[in-house]
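=== RUN LOG ===
request id: a7f3
mode: sequence -> structure
chains: 1
length: 86
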Amino acid sequence: IDVIDFKKAGVIVELGPGSGPVTLELLKKMESDSKLIVFETSKSFCRELKKIGDSRLIIWNESALDMEEHLAGYAVDYIISGIFNT
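=== RESULT ===
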């Protein structure tokens, strides 16, 4: 996340945030009017993410493959991914 210019990042998308360690770091560095949109397929991880309780965080319990329909109307500045194959 070191390459992100948080002063200019209005919308950041995170794919596969898991339980949220990177999500928390992003939120710490983001501006108050920015948005962080996350796509996580695990319901249990989504429950953990909801506990963060930040109004800038938008959580989709969906695959990243479906993100296009959810991002309509947003001008995304950065996409980061924690997705990996096991």
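=== NOTES ===
DSSP finds three helices and four strands in the chain.
The first strand starts at residue 11 and ends at 15.
=== END ===
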